[in-house]
Prior knowledge:
transferase, mainly alpha, 22 helices, RING-type E3 ubiquitin transferase, zinc-finger
Amino acid sequence: MRFLSILGNSFGCSASGERLVSAARDGDLQEAKALLEYNPRLARYSTFGVRNSPLHYSAAQGHDEIVSLLLESGVDINLRNYRGQTALMQACQYGHWEVVQTLILFKANIHKADYLNGGTALHLAALNGHSRCIRLLLADYIPSIPNFCSILRKRSKKDESVSDFDEGALDEVINRPADGGVTALHMAALNGHAEAVHLLLDLGASVSDMTVEDGTTIDLIGAGSTPLHYAACGGNAQCCQLLIARGASLATENANGWTPLMVARSWHRDLLEDILTQRPGGRQRLNPSPYLCLPLMSIVDIARQCGWRSNDSVSMCLDPCVVCLERKCTVAAEGCFHEFCTHCALYLCSTNTTSTVSHGPPGSIACPLCRHGIVSFTKLACTRPISKEMSRTSLSLPFCTCSTEDGQDLNSLEMPFCKPDITCGRLSPLGSFRSLSCRVKLNPGLCLGGSDTSPTRLDNHSLRNQLVRCSTRSSFRRSTSQHEGRRWLCSFNHSLPATGSTC
Length: 503
């Protein structure tokens, strides 16, 4: 009987987990909140087979509020599915930049690679041409300094010596190869995403990196191909022009002995003949990418330190943000010194698509008030760092068992219906499971419409009768007591290996 009670309770958790998965997929925020208040461990649930988790589903569908809710519930931000994909990878794959922004602010790992092809979140964003996701992924590597472009292009050794910019770290991230030596630039060029190609080139992507023959990929172009070979195969003239302007060689041959022109001919890309025909002459000068955004690193750092979702009302703000008129000003733009809330400054940096502004270097964004070029943001004197968050636990979903105190009979169990008063304690492992000791008090009057009476101990038979007679749905609410909340979290001490999902 004890084993059956354990197993039955685990099926109940599975049903609740499936409800949370559905809520995350469909964007039902209220349902997700209710389920997580009832059982915070459900955030760690994953479906059978492909190992889908609520975090993966909400990220793939672009439900930013549910992603934030799940992260604040303590779920591992780097959960993987059976392919090794994280929620960040799936958000990048489908271009949900709001979700990518939230995951980056929560410090998601951008270096995780897919088990099947070795691709990272950057590869998936480039594959589908999501330029906003690309710049958010690289926010921690692009310094908020006015001379970034000149340093990257080796125009000024003086600037390079003064700056603490780690160019090697950026190069390692942006030129990281997947299986077969394919880089993010290869993927963007093959699929004809000119904006992504332009941004990657401005951030230092190499035009000379070649694919390799590793025996695991099917490459119809051939090993030893450069991004220009891939662009020629894709047939996008603008991608070819961008690569050539940045120094891509027209004469490089791959392992099949093909030049980019020969690749274009083999794939019947006749429109590229003139572009890929070698001609003498200087390189074409390119304007900076409209997706280059220098202030992003500075505002991301401030948001992580001081928060970015303050709900201060206008009536309580003596100096509200001029953009939203809802939050108090927390940051100022360097140069013009206009003040904004962190939330609006983040939005400006994430959505900016302006290549040139007055009185600003390449990559600066225009101030919405004076159009002055903003290179970085600084905290106001009144902006204080948020208190350190409690350590985020890796909650899992083991089989659960509800039992009474040690030595008590399971047939005499107090169970919740409307307003449970739950206290939990650890028990020694039972076989291969860890059990959970719960004392739950029931007030029958709340369910049956009677007066408030003291909790009554019931046997299983009377318990089933009350379930039938109960006319209201059970309402589970998390205790407002911080002490009880800590005991609730501490009782879940069993951890399973990380799992996740794919779409």
